Amino acid sequence: MASLQLSVPNIVGSRFKRRPVRCAVERQDLFNRIAPVYDNLNDLLSLGQHRIWKRMAVSWSGAKPGDSVLDLCCGSGDLTFLMSEKVGSYGRVKGLDFSKEQLSIASSRQYFLSKACYNNIEWVEGDALDLPFSNGYFDAITMGYGLRNVVDKRQAMREMFRVLKPGSRVSILDFNKTTQLLTAMFQEWMIDNVVVPTATVYGLAKEYQYLKTSIKEFLTGEELEKLALEVGFSKARHYEIGGGLMGNLVATR
Protein backbone atom coordinates (compact mmCIF):
# COMPACT_ATOMS: atom_id res chain seq x y z
CA MET A 1 0.00 0.00 0.00
CA ALA A 2 1.25 3.48 -0.80
CA SER A 3 2.03 5.88 1.99
CA LEU A 4 2.91 9.55 1.98
CA GLN A 5 6.11 9.98 3.98
CA LEU A 6 6.84 13.58 4.94
CA SER A 7 9.38 12.96 7.68
CA VAL A 8 12.73 12.47 6.01
CA PRO A 9 14.36 10.37 8.75
CA ASN A 10 11.66 7.68 8.35
CA ILE A 11 12.46 7.43 4.65
CA VAL A 12 16.20 7.54 4.16
CA GLY A 13 17.66 6.75 7.54
CA SER A 14 18.57 8.58 10.70
CA ARG A 15 21.72 10.13 9.17
CA PHE A 16 19.50 12.55 7.25
CA LYS A 17 17.98 15.55 9.00
CA ARG A 18 14.57 17.09 8.38
CA ARG A 19 15.25 20.50 6.87
CA PRO A 20 12.98 23.47 6.22
CA VAL A 21 12.15 24.10 2.58
CA ARG A 22 13.88 27.23 1.29
CA CYS A 23 11.63 28.59 -1.44
CA ALA A 24 9.43 31.53 -2.28
CA VAL A 25 6.29 30.89 -0.21
CA GLU A 26 4.06 32.15 -3.01
CA ARG A 27 5.49 29.50 -5.36
CA GLN A 28 4.82 26.76 -2.87
CA ASP A 29 1.28 28.03 -2.36
CA LEU A 30 0.76 28.23 -6.13
CA PHE A 31 1.64 24.57 -6.69
CA ASN A 32 -0.51 23.50 -3.77
CA ARG A 33 -3.48 25.35 -5.34
CA ILE A 34 -3.10 23.91 -8.84
CA ALA A 35 -2.40 20.35 -7.62
CA PRO A 36 -6.00 19.00 -8.00
CA VAL A 37 -6.19 19.86 -11.72
CA TYR A 38 -2.50 19.82 -12.66
CA ASP A 39 -2.57 16.53 -14.57
CA ASN A 40 -5.77 17.33 -16.47
CA LEU A 41 -4.39 20.69 -17.55
CA ASN A 42 -1.13 19.14 -18.70
CA ASP A 43 -3.04 16.70 -20.90
CA LEU A 44 -5.25 19.42 -22.37
CA LEU A 45 -2.54 22.00 -22.91
CA SER A 46 -0.03 19.64 -24.51
CA LEU A 47 -2.56 17.44 -26.35
CA GLY A 48 -1.04 14.54 -24.44
CA GLN A 49 2.45 15.20 -25.81
CA HIS A 50 3.90 15.79 -22.34
CA ARG A 51 3.76 12.04 -21.78
CA ILE A 52 6.08 11.47 -24.74
CA TRP A 53 8.48 14.18 -23.56
CA LYS A 54 8.58 12.66 -20.08
CA ARG A 55 9.42 9.22 -21.45
CA MET A 56 12.25 10.81 -23.42
CA ALA A 57 13.54 12.50 -20.26
CA VAL A 58 13.55 9.20 -18.37
CA SER A 59 15.33 7.45 -21.22
CA TRP A 60 18.03 10.14 -21.30
CA SER A 61 18.59 9.74 -17.54
CA GLY A 62 20.25 6.38 -18.17
CA ALA A 63 18.33 4.73 -15.30
CA LYS A 64 18.50 0.92 -15.43
CA PRO A 65 17.14 -2.06 -13.47
CA GLY A 66 18.25 -2.13 -9.85
CA ASP A 67 19.32 1.52 -9.73
CA SER A 68 18.63 3.99 -6.94
CA VAL A 69 17.10 7.09 -8.54
CA LEU A 70 15.58 10.46 -7.69
CA ASP A 71 12.75 12.35 -9.35
CA LEU A 72 13.24 15.92 -8.21
CA CYS A 73 10.28 18.33 -8.05
CA CYS A 74 8.19 15.24 -8.73
CA GLY A 75 4.76 16.88 -8.55
CA SER A 76 2.00 14.30 -8.95
CA GLY A 77 4.53 11.63 -9.91
CA ASP A 78 4.46 11.15 -13.70
CA LEU A 79 8.24 10.90 -14.05
CA THR A 80 8.54 9.07 -10.73
CA PHE A 81 6.32 6.24 -11.94
CA LEU A 82 8.25 6.02 -15.22
CA MET A 83 11.53 5.86 -13.28
CA SER A 84 10.02 3.12 -11.10
CA GLU A 85 9.24 1.06 -14.20
CA LYS A 86 12.80 1.60 -15.44
CA VAL A 87 14.56 0.43 -12.28
CA GLY A 88 12.07 -2.33 -11.48
CA SER A 89 11.16 -3.95 -8.18
CA TYR A 90 14.80 -4.27 -7.11
CA GLY A 91 15.48 -0.58 -7.67
CA ARG A 92 14.74 2.30 -5.33
CA VAL A 93 12.96 5.53 -6.21
CA LYS A 94 12.60 8.76 -4.28
CA GLY A 95 10.05 11.34 -5.42
CA LEU A 96 10.80 14.73 -3.82
CA ASP A 97 8.68 17.88 -3.92
CA PHE A 98 8.00 20.96 -1.78
CA SER A 99 4.22 20.75 -2.27
CA LYS A 100 2.33 18.58 0.22
CA GLU A 101 -0.75 18.65 -2.01
CA GLN A 102 1.16 17.34 -5.02
CA LEU A 103 2.77 14.61 -2.92
CA SER A 104 -0.62 13.61 -1.53
CA ILE A 105 -1.94 13.18 -5.08
CA ALA A 106 1.19 11.25 -6.09
CA SER A 107 0.77 8.90 -3.13
CA SER A 108 -2.91 8.35 -3.99
CA ARG A 109 -2.00 7.54 -7.59
CA GLN A 110 0.61 5.07 -6.37
CA TYR A 111 -2.08 3.26 -4.37
CA PHE A 112 -4.77 3.22 -7.07
CA LEU A 113 -2.44 2.31 -9.95
CA SER A 114 -1.31 -0.60 -7.77
CA LYS A 115 1.58 -1.75 -9.98
CA ALA A 116 4.00 -4.10 -8.24
CA CYS A 117 7.14 -2.12 -9.03
CA TYR A 118 5.57 1.09 -7.64
CA ASN A 119 6.17 -0.31 -4.16
CA ASN A 120 9.79 0.84 -4.64
CA ILE A 121 8.70 4.52 -4.49
CA GLU A 122 9.02 6.69 -1.40
CA TRP A 123 7.70 10.28 -1.34
CA VAL A 124 9.71 13.00 0.35
CA GLU A 125 8.67 16.54 1.16
CA GLY A 126 11.89 18.47 0.70
CA ASP A 127 13.96 21.26 -0.75
CA ALA A 128 15.65 21.09 -4.16
CA LEU A 129 18.27 23.52 -2.81
CA ASP A 130 19.19 21.36 0.19
CA LEU A 131 18.60 17.72 -0.65
CA PRO A 132 18.32 15.35 2.34
CA PHE A 133 20.58 12.71 0.80
CA SER A 134 24.27 11.89 1.17
CA ASN A 135 26.92 12.47 -1.48
CA GLY A 136 26.87 10.08 -4.43
CA TYR A 137 23.57 8.52 -3.38
CA PHE A 138 21.81 8.17 -6.76
CA ASP A 139 22.46 6.42 -10.07
CA ALA A 140 20.21 8.83 -12.00
CA ILE A 141 18.07 11.94 -11.48
CA THR A 142 15.14 13.35 -13.41
CA MET A 143 13.54 16.77 -13.00
CA GLY A 144 10.41 17.70 -14.92
CA TYR A 145 9.29 21.35 -15.07
CA GLY A 146 11.05 22.15 -11.81
CA LEU A 147 14.33 23.94 -12.45
CA ARG A 148 12.50 26.95 -13.86
CA ASN A 149 10.67 27.37 -10.56
CA VAL A 150 13.48 27.09 -7.99
CA VAL A 151 14.74 30.32 -6.46
CA ASP A 152 18.42 29.46 -7.02
CA LYS A 153 19.11 27.40 -10.15
CA ARG A 154 22.85 27.20 -9.57
CA GLN A 155 22.39 25.79 -6.05
CA ALA A 156 19.83 23.28 -7.34
CA MET A 157 22.35 22.11 -9.96
CA ARG A 158 25.08 21.88 -7.30
CA GLU A 159 22.84 19.68 -5.16
CA MET A 160 22.02 17.38 -8.08
CA PHE A 161 25.74 17.08 -8.84
CA ARG A 162 26.49 16.32 -5.17
CA VAL A 163 23.99 13.47 -4.73
CA LEU A 164 24.79 11.78 -8.07
CA LYS A 165 27.32 8.97 -8.35
CA PRO A 166 30.33 9.65 -10.63
CA GLY A 167 29.49 8.86 -14.24
CA SER A 168 25.73 9.14 -13.63
CA ARG A 169 23.32 11.52 -15.34
CA VAL A 170 20.65 14.07 -14.61
CA SER A 171 17.90 14.65 -17.17
CA ILE A 172 16.03 17.96 -16.85
CA LEU A 173 12.85 18.56 -18.87
CA ASP A 174 11.32 22.03 -19.02
CA PHE A 175 9.88 24.70 -21.26
CA ASN A 176 12.51 25.89 -23.69
CA LYS A 177 13.62 29.50 -23.64
CA THR A 178 14.20 29.59 -27.35
CA THR A 179 16.42 32.04 -29.22
CA GLN A 180 14.28 31.59 -32.35
CA LEU A 181 11.96 34.60 -32.75
CA LEU A 182 9.09 32.74 -34.45
CA THR A 183 9.12 29.92 -31.89
CA ALA A 184 9.21 32.44 -29.03
CA MET A 185 6.27 34.34 -30.53
CA PHE A 186 4.29 31.12 -30.97
CA GLN A 187 5.09 30.06 -27.40
CA GLU A 188 3.82 33.40 -26.07
CA TRP A 189 0.71 33.18 -28.26
CA MET A 190 -0.02 29.69 -26.91
CA ILE A 191 0.23 30.89 -23.32
CA ASP A 192 -2.03 33.91 -23.91
CA ASN A 193 -4.59 32.22 -26.14
CA VAL A 194 -4.62 28.58 -25.05
CA VAL A 195 -2.97 28.08 -21.66
CA VAL A 196 -4.50 30.95 -19.68
CA PRO A 197 -8.01 30.64 -21.19
CA THR A 198 -8.01 26.90 -20.45
CA ALA A 199 -6.76 27.51 -16.90
CA THR A 200 -9.51 30.12 -16.50
CA VAL A 201 -12.11 27.37 -16.84
CA TYR A 202 -10.60 25.82 -13.69
CA GLY A 203 -10.41 29.18 -11.92
CA LEU A 204 -6.61 29.28 -12.23
CA ALA A 205 -5.98 32.07 -14.74
CA LYS A 206 -3.80 34.08 -12.37
CA GLU A 207 -1.75 31.00 -11.44
CA TYR A 208 -0.99 30.14 -15.06
CA GLN A 209 -0.14 33.72 -16.04
CA TYR A 210 2.95 33.09 -13.92
CA LEU A 211 4.08 30.65 -16.62
CA LYS A 212 5.00 33.38 -19.11
CA THR A 213 7.15 35.23 -16.58
CA SER A 214 8.91 32.06 -15.43
CA ILE A 215 9.85 31.15 -19.03
CA LYS A 216 11.17 34.64 -19.76
CA GLU A 217 13.35 34.46 -16.64
CA PHE A 218 14.61 30.94 -17.46
CA LEU A 219 17.95 30.09 -19.08
CA THR A 220 18.51 29.27 -22.74
CA GLY A 221 19.79 25.82 -23.67
CA GLU A 222 23.31 27.18 -24.08
CA GLU A 223 23.14 28.87 -20.67
CA LEU A 224 21.90 25.65 -19.05
CA GLU A 225 24.81 23.70 -20.56
CA LYS A 226 27.25 26.35 -19.29
CA LEU A 227 25.73 26.27 -15.80
CA ALA A 228 25.98 22.48 -15.59
CA LEU A 229 29.65 22.55 -16.56
CA GLU A 230 30.39 25.36 -14.11
CA VAL A 231 29.03 23.39 -11.13
CA GLY A 232 31.18 20.39 -12.05
CA PHE A 233 29.37 18.17 -14.57
CA SER A 234 31.81 16.68 -17.08
CA LYS A 235 29.39 16.82 -20.02
CA ALA A 236 26.19 18.71 -20.73
CA ARG A 237 23.92 18.71 -23.78
CA HIS A 238 20.60 20.51 -24.26
CA TYR A 239 18.06 19.12 -26.74
CA GLU A 240 15.18 21.12 -28.16
CA ILE A 241 12.02 19.01 -28.47
CA GLY A 242 8.37 19.63 -29.23
CA GLY A 243 9.24 21.91 -32.12
CA GLY A 244 11.48 23.98 -29.86
CA LEU A 245 8.74 24.65 -27.29
CA MET A 246 10.35 22.25 -24.81
CA GLY A 247 13.94 21.44 -23.94
CA ASN A 248 15.81 18.67 -22.14
CA LEU A 249 19.22 19.10 -20.52
CA VAL A 250 21.28 15.94 -20.07
CA ALA A 251 24.35 16.35 -17.84
CA THR A 252 26.86 13.69 -16.77
CA ARG A 253 28.70 13.87 -13.45
TrEMBL record:
Source organism superkingdom: Eukaryota
Subcellular location: Plastid, Chloroplast
Keyword field: Chloroplast, Methyltransferase, Plastid, S-adenosyl-L-methionine, Transferase
Class of enzymatic activity (EC top level): transferase
EC number per UniProt: 2.1.1.329
Reaction(s) this enzyme catalyzes, per UniProt: demethylphylloquinol + S-adenosyl-L-methionine = phylloquinol + S-adenosyl-L-homocysteine + H(+)
Stored NCBIfam families: MenG_MenH_UbiE (TIGR01934), PRK00216.1-5 (NF001244)
Name of this chain's protein: 2-phytyl-1,4-beta-naphthoquinone methyltransferase, chloroplastic
